[in-house]
What we know:
Helices cover 67% and strands 0% of the residues. It has 220 residues and is an all-alpha fold. The longest helix has 45 residues, at 2-46.
Amino acid sequence: xxxxxxxxxxxxxxxxxxxxxxxxxxxxxxxxxxxxxxxxxxxxxxxxxxxxxxxxxxxxxxxxxxxxxxxxxxxxxxxxxxxxxxxxxxxxxxxxxxxxxxxxxxxxxxxxxxxxxxxxxxxxxxxxxxxxxxxxxxxxxxxxxxxxxxxxxxxxxxxxxxxxxxxxxxxxxxxxxxxxxxxxxxxxxxxxxxxxxxxxxxxxxxxxxxxxxxxxxxxx
Length: 220
């Protein structure tokens, strides 16, 4: 009996050590991501003639529509040439490609407030807030050893989201909270999944899963 307890204690201890190492590796990788992001943002600000895609260019799309809404140009949000010209003007450079605004108008309620800030400040704040929400959702979703949520920051997709300023962190947060509340609070879960309507291709998948699993209250 004593030997069995000793073996179990060793396994628990080994598990905790492995968990700590994985967390440390993830944090180290994330720090590298942040360093790379910071370096590239500074480089972008000092080299506007750089022909490569600017860091945070996808967020630039959100930022631009916010400025257009505030200046009374909301009717031209889906006018690709007009929006593209505004995007290049706000980024201070010529883009070798088009990035049209393709989101439903509801997304404007989230992105427009960021346009009141300077672009770089708004980009950093956008990424920090949405990443914090995503990590908190994962923290609540994990039943045991909640510290394992920190492993998410070492995922390669994090640097891609930082690179483009995309909305992947926000999608993760909404999906995570939707799953967390699904059994205990169907209404709140439905609200979380419903907010994903700003990203139809992801929302449709989550609605399909809810339909297959017969989560009628959440769907309602």
